[in-house]
Specification:
Number of strands: 0
Number of domains: 1
Distance between the termini: 17 Å
Structural class: mainly alpha
Order of helices and strands: HHHHH
Oligomer: single chain
Helix content: over 70%
Length: 115
Amino acid sequence: MSTVLLLIASNIFMTFAWYGHLKYGHGWPLWKAVLVAWGIALAEYCLAVPANRLGYTHFTGFQLKVIQEAVTLVVFIVFAITFLKEKMAWNYLASFAFLLIAVFFAFAFKTEVHT
């Protein structure tokens, strides 16, 4: 569970690093947006690296990546709706449903975990 919580926290930072400037940074020169994003991304790395190290004792590398992608999408949906004020459309929901099916297949069958 700590792996998932760390990945959620890291993805919140990364989402703001990648997309936060879309709302408030239009007047910034590109170099400033990149430097601010790098600063935010440092916090993301400080959470993501331990999350993956802890998780690798319970999950495979493939499973960790699938978890990370699913978390990224959930965090981004909340971000896009609340921060960017974008509307959720049926096709986005359909694409998310297919990704949840991918998560099911990544975890539904027994795989050997490296220790």
